[in-house]
Amino acid sequence: MDAPLIEFRNVSRIYGEGEAEVRALDGVSLTIAEGEFVAIMGPSGSGKSTAMNIIGCLDRPSAGDYLFNGVEVGQVSQDARALLRRHYLGFVFQGFNLLSRTSALENVELPMIYKGLPRAERLVRARAALEKVGLAGREAHQPSQLSGGQQQRVAIARALAGDPLVILADEPTGNLDTHRSREIMELLVALNREGITIVMVTHEEDMAEFATRLIVFVDGRVSKDERKAGAA
Amino acid sequence: MLWETIRLAVQAIRRNVMRSLLTVLGVVIGVAAVIAMVTVGQGSSAQVTAQVESLGTNLLILRPGKQSMGPGTREAAPAFRLTDVAAIKALPVVEVAAPVVSTSQTVVAGNLNVATTVTGTSADYLSLGGWTLRKGRAFTESEERGGSAVCLLGETVRQKIFGNTDPTGETLRVKNVSCTVIGLLGAKGASSFGQDQDDVVMMPVRAVQRRLAGSQDVNSVSIGLRNGVSTTRGVAEIESLMRERRRIAPGAEQDFQVTDLKQIAATLSGISTILTGMLSSVAAVSLLVGGIGIMNIMLVSVTERTREIGIRLSVGATSGQVLTQFLVEAVVLSLAGGVLGIVVGLALAALASGFMSIPFAPSPAVVALAFLFSAVVGVIFGYFPARRAARLDPIEALRHQ
After folding, report:
1. Structure confidence at residue B72 (pLDDT)
2. Three-class SS of residue A4?
């Protein structure tokens, strides 16, 4: 494989100082290549969320380097990280994080507003994204009128609308029942097959089964990293 | 992008119409108050100016009593005589001089009974006071000399007695004098002090003196100076003449005063300007209070929408864009309040002008200024909450419940 899309070089993230010092990440090195579907697992406090935040350019490492697409981005400015998120990353959260009292279509439009796309194009692309996640016909629905699974689909459509290299999913099925969870996972797998790299944090083994690679964090270090031949 | 932001702000405001309305109420009241004050103030100034214009040039009034300001402080002093009027008229600087003898009388016509002011004067008084004749004629010289029982009616008196019919040639009784109406005066409306100038009957001065007042007194003299004569010089010449005629020793205080009507009008106009300014500044304080109201609600809004801010940051909004969004929202809010305030203020001013029967004079400059000011209020009081929103940490914001 060529240059990895995501590379951690001895990354540490330290909260607090002195006695109260907490090493959420302790010298982690790992690489994720383009096109992978990575599941990150680990007990709470193991550093998996911190790793996710750093990958998502929401947080930065206290020490070590974070390279995105071969470029060191760990220490760039807040605005530069916002631009990275805008152009390369899409987020899916456990709590869906949709704008309330805002239609599904407008939610999906949001990232494209910041990308500066003209309204007509935004609407076309937002409709296409909603159709892709199986929500054609529900463009005008507000989050409160949609089920949890549907809300998560809107969130995935929103992540897709930004045309990202990577989708970062933080416990995407945490608030859903098994049936809906599987639907969401199948959707993510389908997107992965189209070439989008997916990094997902989960604590459900069933869901991790869908990924092509499993990384387990314990106490701020990678304790297990295995690739599977084929996904479910 | 800015257009997008404005659209977004309007959306956010419309999501909570009631709260948005209450938020801007302070600005609405502030702007409305300032606009109403200034508009009414300018209307009354305009009216005073118009009245001064109608007075004609170089009008002086000679009254008995000491030079003093304010009512009730004027000491009794002997009245003038018609000979004084003649002497003043003979001065080279004087164009015309008309005696004025005012008495309160009951005017009777048929079974109608009207209390009014009967002014004894000469035909010259009409041009001096800016009076016009709508019907009939003024007093002739022989009527003035002989003190004939003829009269001119003011519009108010005519309405009360004759309605809309032509009163000329009719006879009415003033006190116990039977008097023929020879003319109808054009309406003048209320004076700067609010009294009805049309509630008047004019008769030749000698008729009033002899038949009504029973004395030779002249209450005041209206004097018109010749063109090109300065007011100062006119006043000086009249004063020196009167001091001589009333035998006032040099250096002693004089027992009469010469007032320049224009000066009074200018003073009045000045007072109204000062009052308008003062009231407007009080009203402007409420604009400040309105701005604080906006800040308060915007701060609440930032807290409420922390998660929304987190979402926006996560999809790639820069903190500058978040700042702009909240700032634009505050400005749109206060501008909406400003526009509403301008409408309400102008409506109030129009109403008040109607009641006070002064011209409605809205000033585009003041309206523009109010608009600008409400935008500035939005920027100033929106900045702090917007900055708070922009400084949120995306991780914390996303976790916020």
Report:
1. 52
2. coil
Check if the beta carbon of residue B323 is closer than 8 Å to that of residue B389: yes
Dump pLDDT digits (tens) for B250-300: 888 888 888 887 777 778 778 888 888 888 888 778 888 888 888 988 899
Sign of CA dihedral B392, B397, B398, B399: positive
> Length of chain A, please?
232
Cβ-Cβ contacts under 8 Å, A85 against chain B:
313-316
DSSP B196-244: BTTSEEEEEHHHIIIIII-S--B-EEEEEEPTT--HHHHHHHHHHHHHH
Rounded to whole angstroms, how far apart are CA atoms A149 and A28?
A: 34
Q: Given this model, what pLDDT does residue A220 score?
A: 92
Distance CA B358, CA B351 (A): 10
* ipTM of predicted assembly, 2 dp: 0.93
DSSP, collapsed to helix, strand or coil, labels residue A190 as helix
The enclosing H or E element of A178 equals helix A178-193
Q: Mean pLDDT per segment of 10 residues, for chain A of length 232 residues?
A: 84 89 92 95 92 93 93 90 94 92 92 91 95 93 94 95 93 91 94 95 92 94 85 44
Domains within chain A, CATH numbers bracketed = 6-227 (3.40.50.300)
Long-range contacts of B267-271 (CB under 8 A, 24+ apart): B268/B48, B268/B192, B269/B45, B269/B48, B269/B49, B269/B52
Percent of chain B with pLDDT over 70: 95
Distance from C-alpha of B290 to C-alpha of A187, rounded to nearest angstrom: 51
Structure-token pair, residue B21: 């309305």
Task: Please determine, for residue B369, whether its predicted confidence score (pLDDT) is greater than 60.
Answer: yes
Q: Is B2 on the interface with A (CB under 8 A)?
A: no
Amino acid at B39: T
B12 contacts in A (CB within 8 Å)?
A: none
Smallest Cβ–Cβ distance between B311 and the set A79, A86, A99 belongs to A99
